[in-house]
Structures are given as C-alpha cells and as structure tokens.
Amino acid sequence: MSLSVALTKGRLEKKTVAMLERMGYGTENLKDKGRALVFEDTKKDIRYFLVKSNDVITYVNHGVADIGVVGKDTLMERGNQNYELLDLEFGKCKFCVASLPDQDVFQKVGHVKIGTKYPQVAREYFLSRGIDVEVIKIDGSVELAPILGLADGIVDIVETGTTLKENGLVILEEVCEISARVIVNKASFKLKRNEIMAVVRDLESVVKEDAHKNGFEG
Ligand SMILES: Nc1ncnc2c1ncn2[C@@H]1O[C@H](COP(=O)(O)OP(=O)(O)OP(=O)(O)O)[C@@H](O)[C@H]1O
Ligand SMILES: O=P(O)(O)OC[C@H]1O[C@H](OP(=O)(O)OP(=O)(O)O)[C@H](O)[C@@H]1O
C-alpha cells in the first residue's frame, strides 16, 4: 500500500531530505522541487507533501498523510492525537523563558505578562509553576516584547542564543528540549503497519548511526 508523508518545509526540510537520501529513498524530486508541493519518491511507493509545521499535524490528524515530520514545539502547542514514534535528533533547540536581566518574571509580585508564539506552552508552564500569567500571542520577533514593554518576559525557542544576546535578553529557565519528531496517524498505523514500520525503522537506523558516530552510544 502506498504511503503519504507530510514534511515540514523551512528549517527542518534540508535535514529531513538528507535523512531520506541516506536511507536510500528516491529524493530527486524533493531536492529539485521548484514550486511543486507534492513529490513522488522515485524508488519507493511514497509521496511527500511539503507544508508548514502546523499543517503537518493537520494532514496527519485527518489521515491524509499517514506519517508526518514535525518539531516537538508544534506538537506541544497543538496537542498530539497521533502516535509519536521517533525522535529524529535534529532541529534541536529549547523552549526557554527569557527577559531583560533586571526583570526576572519569577520574582515578580502579582501576575506576569508573557509574549510568545506558543501561548499554550507558555500558559501550561507558568500554571505548573503556580504563577498567575497573562499570555500575549505574538507571531514573530518575540524578543521585542519585553524591550518595548509589551510583556515582562517571553517564552520562545532558543537555538544558538544569538537572538537573545543581540537583544540584551537572558534565559531565566529552560522549559524543555525540542527536536524533530515522527508522528503517525492512528488509523493508518492499523491499516498500513508494515509499510509504516519499514519507514520508521529506516529512519531509526540513520538516527542510531549518527548517535554512534557522535559517541553517544556503545
Ligand atoms: N532557531 C530556531 N527557531 C525556530 N525553530 C527552530 C529553530 N531551530 C530549530 N527549529 C525547529 O524548526 C521548526 C520549523 O521552524 P521554521 O522557522 O522553519 O517554521 P515555523 O516555526 O513554522 O516558522 P514560520 O511561521 O516562520 O514558517 C520549528 O518548529 C522547530 O521545531
Ligand atoms: O537562538 P537563536 O539561534 O538565535 O534562534 C532563536 C530565534 O529563532 C527563532 O526565530 P525565527 O528566526 O524563526 O524568526 P521569528 O522571530 O520571525 O519567528 C526564534 O523565535 C528565536 O527568535
């Protein structure tokens, strides 16, 4: 049975395609893509869609894609109704709470205002800390919010730390680690278990090879 796979375009795209290539899959169409959005694997009975991260989850939720590759950040924000079968160990970054150095939101009396692209994650984190929070949804350049006084602090993704540093913000707490994950629609997993597991095992063998190379194993 053929498989449909939704891939996150943008930051995760290159590494995902490189991984498929190392698995011996036919990635020519994905690499030479022009403006196309659907790509047939030239060796396997698989078609790929390249979409934004939130849409990966939507396509997998609806079973239009059997498998999805998406960041843990997006899964945490949306909530996951699919199986999360594998950590691909790339696209690594962290969710952090940050602020200006003299505005530690964890020391503030009364409610704190947090600017973020991830309102659900921010709300849950502050509630778990027993802090009364007002979350302000921002679509980008989140670091501006405390600088301009829109919020006391932010919850955002930190990779190298450069954006925080260049804007004079500091990390107050690390919320959790993020990386790219493989999700599978539950009904698809019943109907196409063998085909899906073959892909997941191929992905896993590349992940393990890298872990071995990096000296994290054996
Ligand atoms: N420095 C980083 N900033 C943001 N995301 C990162 C970073 N490093 C890795 N990632 C991962 O890459 C995924 C895709 O990020 P990308 O910026 O391409 O798309 P996006 O978050 O949907 O943003 P946009 O709305 O601008 O398309 C994120 O969901 C996250 O898992
Ligand atoms: O720690 P760093 O390596 O500096 O990366 C983190 C930055 O990258 C992301 O922003 P993005 O580039 O997606 O732009 P955006 O602000 O428009 O979301 C994220 O929201 C941080 O601002």
TrEMBL record:
UniProt-listed CDD domains: PBP2_HisGs
InterPro entries named among the record's database cross-references: ATP_PRibTrfase_cat (IPR013820), ATP_PRibTrfase_CS (IPR018198), ATP_PRibTrfase_HisG (IPR001348), ATP_PRibTrfase_HisG_short (IPR024893)
Compartment list: Cytoplasm
Keyword ATP-binding found: yes
Alphabetical keyword list: Amino-acid biosynthesis, ATP-binding, Cytoplasm, Glycosyltransferase, Histidine biosynthesis, Nucleotide-binding, Transferase
SUPFAM superfamilies: Periplasmic binding protein-like II
Molecular function in Gene Ontology: ATP phosphoribosyltransferase activity
Main location as per UniProt: cytoplasm
UniProt domain ATP phosphoribosyltransferase catalytic: residue ranges: 53-204
Reactions that this protein is recorded to catalyse: 1-(5-phospho-beta-D-ribosyl)-ATP + diphosphate = 5-phospho-alpha-D-ribose 1-diphosphate + ATP
Coiled coil: none
The protein's Enzyme Commission number: 2.4.2.17
Enzyme class name: transferase
One family name in Pfam for this protein: HisG
The UniProt record lists the keyword Zinc-finger: no
Gene3D superfamilies: Periplasmic binding protein-like II
Pathway info: Amino-acid biosynthesis; L-histidine biosynthesis; L-histidine from 5-phospho-alpha-D-ribose 1-diphosphate: step 1/9
UniProt-listed PANTHER family: ATP PHOSPHORIBOSYLTRANSFERASE, ATP PHOSPHORIBOSYLTRANSFERASE ATP-PRTASE
Family as reported in the entry's similarity comment: Belongs to the ATP phosphoribosyltransferase family. Short subfamily.
HAMAP family per UniProt: HisG_Short
Subunit structure and binding partners: Heteromultimer composed of HisG and HisZ subunits.
Function: Catalyzes the condensation of ATP and 5-phosphoribose 1-diphosphate to form N'-(5'-phosphoribosyl)-ATP (PR-ATP). Has a crucial role in the pathway because the rate of histidine biosynthesis seems to be controlled primarily by regulation of HisG enzymatic activity.
Domain remark text: Lacks the C-terminal regulatory region which is replaced by HisZ.
The protein, known as: ATP phosphoribosyltransferase
Gene giving rise to this polypeptide: hisG
